[in-house]
């Protein structure tokens, strides 16, 4: 994944969601989905346009990349700047990456005006986000912690106190615990594990990685 920095933590979608608002009899239906490439986002937008083929507008916005490198938005026939851009601003403000949204509008017969459209499309995206499940993608490392059976109880007690759940536990001649640790906590964890076992624990970094914490 290239060089990783402490700012690499970012929000991700665990599951997409849908939301709906009604403004002066116009229905605004937002559909949000995780998309990791521009191709996925474009395909999702086309899918929504086919699903809601009879709607007046299917406006869209998406952010791709762990640092939000790629952004796109479309007003799909609404007055310029009244739909896609406000939708993109909500996504940007959420801090979620690799996300796409389509807001479908069924016209209710009453014009909303520029300000009304901006508010409606903004609120529709927020409503959709409220129905999404999100997590934090964290930069971390995979540690292999090796101990003898005499200290297993001490380590398990420490893990329980700290809310640490080993990704894997291997019981053989010695006991090995595989831990996924946020990068900012690695040094303190090493120190605490060493103190807990009076220096008898062996700690090896297997690799740098990313993992998701559910929000």
Automatic annotation (TrEMBL):
| Gene3D superfamilies in the record | 3.30.70.240, Impact, N-terminal domain
SUPFAM superfamilies from the UniProt entry: EF-G C-terminal domain-like, Ribosomal protein S5 domain 2-like
User: What InterPro entries is this protein classified in?
Assistant: EFG_III/V (IPR035647), Impact (IPR023582), Impact_N (IPR001498), Impact_N_sf (IPR036956), Impact_YigZ-like (IPR015796), Ribosomal_Su5_D2-typ_SF (IPR020568), UPF0029_Impact_C (IPR015269), UPF0029_Impact_CS (IPR020569)
Q: Where is the Impact N-terminal domain?
A: 24-128
Question: Which superkingdom heads the taxonomic lineage of this protein's source?
Answer: Bacteria
Which Pfam families does the annotation name?
DUF1949 (PF09186), Impact_N (PF01205)
Could you say which protein family the record assigns here? Belongs to the IMPACT family.
Name used for this protein in its record? YigZ family protein
């Amino acid at each position: 994944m290239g060089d990783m920095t402490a700012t690499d933590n970012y929000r991700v979608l665990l599951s997409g969601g849908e939301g709906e608002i009604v403004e002066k009899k116009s229905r605004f239906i937002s559909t949000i989905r995780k998309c990791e490439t521009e191709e996925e986002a474009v395909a999702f937008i086309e899918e929504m346009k086919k699903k809601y083929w009879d709607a007046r507008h299917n406006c869209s916005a998406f952010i791709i990349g762990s640092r939000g490198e790629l952004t796109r938005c479309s007003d799909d026939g609404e007055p310029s700047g009244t739909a896609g851009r406000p939708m993109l601003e909500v996504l940007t403000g959420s801090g979620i990456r690799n996300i796409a949204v389509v807001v479908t509008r069924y016209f209710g017969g009453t014009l909303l005006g520029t300000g009304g459209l901006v508010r409606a499309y903004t609120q529709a995206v927020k409503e959709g986000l409220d129905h999404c499940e999100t997590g934090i993608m964290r930069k971390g490392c995979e540690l292999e912690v090796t101990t003898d059976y005499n200290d297993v109880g001490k380590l398990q007690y420490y893990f329980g106190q700290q809310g640490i759940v080993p990704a894997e536990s291997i019981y053989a001649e010695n006991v090995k615990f595989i831990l996924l640790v946020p990068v900012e906590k690695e040094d303190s964890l090493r120190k605490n594990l060493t103190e807990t076992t009076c220096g008898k624990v062996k700690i090896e970094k297997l690799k740098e990685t990313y993992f998701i914490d559910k929000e």
